Amino acid sequence: MSSLTLADLVANRTMSAEMAATLAVAAEERRSALFVAIPRMAGKSTVAEAMLRFAPAGVPLRRLSRDAGPGLGIPATADGSYLLMSEISQAGFSDYLWGEDVRAVFRAVAERGFGLVTALHAAGLEQAFSVITGENEVPDEFAAALDLMVYVRSIGEWRNPSRRVVEAIYEIEGVQAGRPQATLLHHWSEPDDRFETVDAPLRIGASAQTYDKHLEALRAGS
Q: What's the rounded Cα separation, in Å, for the pair 78 and 60?
């Protein structure tokens, strides 16, 4: 797991304290999140792993892989796990899943209540869901198990970017005809290099007090 924490990512201006607090609450609630970027090495895994540090103590983190056999490492019964699918991709690595395997993961999340953290390469929200519901044929009711989409920008040459920044965080409220019904929660404005909170979540963060606790700590650098 990356050594960088959400507080580190706030300090280096990868994201705002408000973005980090939303991710912390999502992990505490074992919410499912999709991390999206276009180039390799944009920081999807770094942000995801920083978020997962806030998962409740004792929650199993199960890294899925074809090497684990036909079940990919998905528990046969609901046990409150977070399922970690490294990437939705045809790249050929054993932990990069596609097609039937992706459908099996989303089915397990929707039907057995696992949390899911995964990633893919796309230019934004709509294109990301076209990969999931279109190319991988995940049904709407299973794709709707995702709660958040986090879009990460890599600025500069992809092998050695000058900066990585979380450009947007969306809350997914549902999926219809393969398209996400989503609300933009947080956004990075590139012209003035400013993070903005756009809207409050509906599904994530049942307790505003929990969000405020995390926000205060992250603003203080912890």
A: 11
